[in-house]
Amino acid sequence: MTVVQVLGSLPTGRDVVRPDFDAISDALQQPYRHLVVAGSHRASFPDRHHAATICDLLLNQLFPGFFADRETLERSAKPNDVRGLHLALETQIRRALRYAARSAGTASDDIIVQATEHADASIAELPTIQELLAGDVEAAFSNDPSAIDREIIILSYPSIEALAIQRFAHRLYRRGVPLLPRMLTEVAHSRTGIDIHPGAVLGASFFIDHGTGVVIGETATIGDHCVLYQGVTLGAWNPTGRDEHGVLRRGAVNKRHPDLADHVTVYAGATILGGDTCIGHHSIIGGKVWLTESVIPYSVVMMDAPPLRIRSRRVASEST
Questions:
Q1: pLDDT tens, 151-202?
Q2: Sequence spans of domains, the chain
Q3: Which of 33, 225, 269, 283 has the lowest CB atom count within 10 Å?
Q4: What's the predicted TM-score (pTM) here?
């Protein structure tokens, strides 16, 4: 059938039945009406847009001038910028606490005070976080021969943005702030391809090379001076993730993810699983390794080299 025939068979303006927009809107909202985020409470729910704004304000403070335009750079040393981050953070923490209170059916009288305390404590830790990030930049410079200077690492390496946001979100997570820490790290995940749960404990001088596809779970711990390459997973081992009734064990009280001691290097595509799995210090885990058991310090874990079959295409092409 030709395009003309198809178009000719379409109904004319009078024959078109318009959708019932009100009915469709009502049908789309119906499955969510029982949730806390619906109805009159949705304005108090933390939102993705402001989570991204917090990440931008945070990066501008931790790396003055590197994540901002010229106009912002000229104002970067002013304390109002820190106050702006505090205000945005306090507002979203307050919304997250109200969400949690409504979900639990508990009173929320002191939420404003709690939000201010959480925001104050998190802002006070910015200098410490900045010092840790300086160590992360040095680790990248020490391990990557393609880094011509430290500025290019801050400006272009995705791991720096992911680590900056996670190290800050981890402080919120550790203080018990609900929902928002995960939202912040998911902003970093969407931007960098690096997925680090805010509950993960990261040591000093941490370098993630390339980074795409790296996943670090909630209860993972990573020691000092560790290096991960792209596609590494520090994940949960399913057989230990459910109780005797097949129900998932949830939350950080259930140790599900592995531990890496100091000076561990994990190469591209390796998967290390399980809360009882510990990688001893100064160990090397090779690419594509699947590991669900602990290894002692100074171990080298490698896959056997697969057999290769190499043939010449020239012979095949000359015979045709």
A1: 999 999 999 999 999 999 999 999 999 999 999 999 999 999 999 999 999 9
A2: 37-193, 200-320
A3: 33
A4: 0.85
Task: Extract the tokens encoding 40.
Answer: 């009159």
pLDDT, averaged across the chain: 88
CATH T-level topology, domain 37-193: serine acetyltransferase, domain 1 (1.10.3130)
Q: Give 186-224 as a DSSP string.
A: HHHHHHHS-EE-TT-EE-SS-EESS-TT-EE-TT-EE-T
**pLDDT tens readout for residues 38-58:** 444 455 678 899 999 999 999
Residue with tokens 């409470």: 41
The tokens for 158 are 């995705």
Task: Indicate the class that CATH gives domain 200-320.
Answer: mainly beta
Would you say the C-alpha torsion 276, 213, 85, 113 has a positive or negative sign? negative
Report CA 230 to chain centroid distance, whole Å.
14
- Give me the helix-helix angle, 79-104 and 180-192, nearest 10°: 120
Cα dihedral value 43, 192, 67, 157, nearest 10: 160
Whole-number CA gyration radius for the chain: 25
> What does the alpha-carbon distance between residue 155 and residue 133 come to, in Å, rounded to a whole number?
13
Tokens of 11: 């109904």
User: For 202-229, what is the mean pLDDT?
Assistant: 98
From 229, 177, 171, select the one nearest 201 (Cα to Cα). Answer: 171
